[in-house]
Amino acid sequence: MAASLLKGLGTALVTPFNNHRIDFVALKKIVQYNLSNGVDFLVPLGTTGETSTLTDTECLQLLDAVMEANPENKPVVCGWFGKNSTQLVIDLLKKTPLDGIHSILVASPYYNKPSQTGLFHHFTAIADQSPKPVVLYNVPSRTAVNINAETTLRLAEHPNIIGTKEASGDFNQIMQILKYRPAGFSMLSGDDMLTLPMIACGAEGVISVISNAFPGIFSEMVNAALAGDLAKAKSKNDLLLDVHKWLYIEGNPVGIKAALSLLSWCTDEVRLPLYPLSEQNMAHLKEAIKSL
Questions:
Q1: E strands within the chain?
Q2: Going by DSSP bridges, is the β-strand pair 41-43/21-22 parallel, antiparallel, or unpaired?
Q3: Which of 57, 186, 215, 231 could bridge to 34 as Cys pair (CB 3.0-4.6 Å)?
Q4: Which residues constitute the domain of residue 163?
Q5: Residue 17, in any domain of the structure
Q6: Inter-residue contact 134 to 123 (CB < 8 Å)
Q7: Would you please indicate which residues are annotated as catalytic (active-site) residues?
């Protein structure tokens, strides 16, 4: 299935809450803020969106809200499909309306720790059945299993697998994929702090957390890096360097929601078992943002 190559800055959207319910007003404002500040595509219902705590009804409502807030029809990559059962993913694909969706982001299965052979067949089965192109999501810190370079490259030959969000942090693996991948297979950073060096090595962009709050700065950094202006990219990257730490110190999206609350975009509310940023770390985050 043909699909345009994902490139540039994609925002892994938060799901704002207010009194335990999704705050759709805040969500649409955050989407519009991102789109007006250079974000190239949107990624709702991923890890940053706390999808594992949402009901199916909430997921469908949120997807509709994001589409409504995207009048220019920038690509939307739906991250709802990271399950630890292959058949559950296929069943979910069959009943989910995907009109207007560019592609789906599929994290490797968590908890059951499949072999590389199991991973290959998991993603192949999904790609065979999916009506939309598939983007792999390798995040071993969360799933307890790494999609290694050899498996990624085997999967890259599938006509319906168009790229990977690589969050292994392993630059040897990243460079192996970049060297041997087929044409038309995109590499996207899954780690904001490694985006600049990954683009310097040949990656096409990033699916970002920090861009929820600072889309303009991060977009300038990504675009400069893609244009080969690494000096400008570094200067933009340095602006946010001291903010990153506080976004992840108590987990994602705890930190980015704290930042968004400081910037008055939404509350810092997260759903249990996550818990809002501690007062001490909130003060550190506030100082880091002030330094901008």
A1: 8-12, 17-18, 21-22, 41-43, 77-78, 103-107, 134-138, 161-166, 186-189, 205-208
A2: unpaired
A3: 215
A4: 8-228
A5: yes
A6: yes
A7: 137, 165
- The reply to whether 214 falls in a domain is yes
Count how many residues are written for the chain.
292
Q: Give which of 5, 41, 1 is closest to 184, Cα–Cα.
A: 5
* 136 φ, ψ (degrees, to nearest 5): -70, 150
Q: What is the Cα–Cα distance from 240 to 71, expressed in whole angstroms?
A: 29
233 to each of 9, 40, 224, how far by Cα in Å? 13, 17, 5
By DSSP bridging, strand 77-78 and strand 103-107 are: parallel
Each residue of 13-71: pLDDT tens digit?
999 999 999 999 999 999 999 999 999 999 999 999 999 999 999 999 999 999 999 99
Rounded Cα gap, residues 16 and 183, in angstroms: 37
Count of domains for the chain? 1
The verdict on residue 179 lying in a domain is yes
Count of CB atoms situated within 10 Å of the CB of 59: 21
Q: Which tens digit of pLDDT belongs to each residue from 236-245?
A: 999 999 999 9
Specify the CATH number for the domain of residue 69: 3.20.20.70
Please tell me the distance from the alpha carbon of residue 142 to that of residue 128, in angstroms, as a whole number.
25
Distance CA 260, CA 273 (A): 20
d(CA 262, CA 273): 22
Regarding pTM above 0.85, the answer is: yes
Q: List all residues 6 or more positions away from 291 whose beta carbon is below 8 Å from its beta carbon.
A: 242
Q: Which residues pair with 186 in a beta bridge?
A: 163
Type of residue numbered 218? F
DSSP 150-218: HHHHHHTTSTTEEEEEE-S--HHHHHHHHHHPPTT-EEEES-GGGHHHHHHTT--EEEESGGGT-HHHH
Residue 169: Cβ-neighbour burial (10 angstroms; 0-12, 13-18, 19+) = middle
